[in-house]
Amino acid sequence: MVANIGRPYRLARWAFLLVLLGSALEANSGNESRMDRNDSRGYFFEMADIDRRELVSKARSLSNGDSIETAVALLGPPMRDKDLVRKNGEFVTRVLLYYTKKWEESLVNERHDRYIRLEFDVDDRLERTIWKLDFTDAPDDDQR
User: Fold this and answer.
1) Residue of 95, 69, 67, 102 lying closest to 81 (CA atoms)
2) What was the pLDDT predicted at 86?
3) How far is Cα 56 from Cα 30, in angstroms, rounded to an integer?
4) Would you say 68 and 96 are in contact if contact means Cβ atoms under 8 Å apart?
5) Could you count the other beta carbons within 10 Å of the beta carbon of residue 108?
6) CA-closest candidate to residue 94, choices 121, 69, 72, 117
7) Which helix (H) or strand (E) covers residue 19, if one does?
8) Where are the domains of the chain?
9) What is the pLDDT of residue 82?
């Protein structure tokens, strides 16, 4: 009688271990396929080549000290306009982002996103331009 009780427990233990092993293998293969799927699905937003070249050309004409109104009049409304402040509320910079490629709608992706980032001081004057573009679009003399 004792032997009959022990056998179902051993079978249940083996079944549990097999299910656990199967779940781990499935989860691992699921992560790989999810990564492959993400790389092949394409961008949420991708600017047309001619529009991208025009945006880069216009942005190159901006100079440090230009007003934010000048930048927006020249480039159009940005995809993102945000004030960056410290925890104590102290202003750091105002950022306008002009994306040429955006991987996901509501997330930042440093690997895939391409943009022109304009940073303005407290008086809304341009103090820095950051270029994160594909090599063929980036200006030669500025930061990429």
Assistant:
1) 95
2) 95
3) 40
4) yes
5) 12
6) 121
7) helix 2-40
8) 1-41, 45-132
9) 95
Structure-token match 């199967």, residue found: 22
The residues, any chain, with a CB within 8 Å of residue 109's CB and separated by 6 or more, are: 102, 103
* Strand ranges inside 29-136, DSSP E: 45-46, 80-85, 91-102, 114-120, 126-132
Lowest mean pLDDT among 37-41, 57-61, 68-72: 37-41
Distance CA 91, CA 94 (A): 8
The residue type at 18: L
Fold of 45-132: Beta-lactamase Inhibitory Protein; Chain:B, domain 1 (3.30.1450)
pTM (2 d.p.) = 0.65
Residue 130 region by backbone torsions, left for phi larger than 0, else alpha for psi between -120 and 50, else beta: beta
CB neighbour class for 60 (10 Å; exposed up to 12, middle 13-18, buried from 19): middle
Nearest Cα residue to 78 out of 100, 106, 111, 61:
100
Q: In which residue are the tokens 């306008």 written?
A: 96
**DSSP conformational letter for 107:** S
Q: In 10 A of CB 8, how many CB atoms?
A: 9
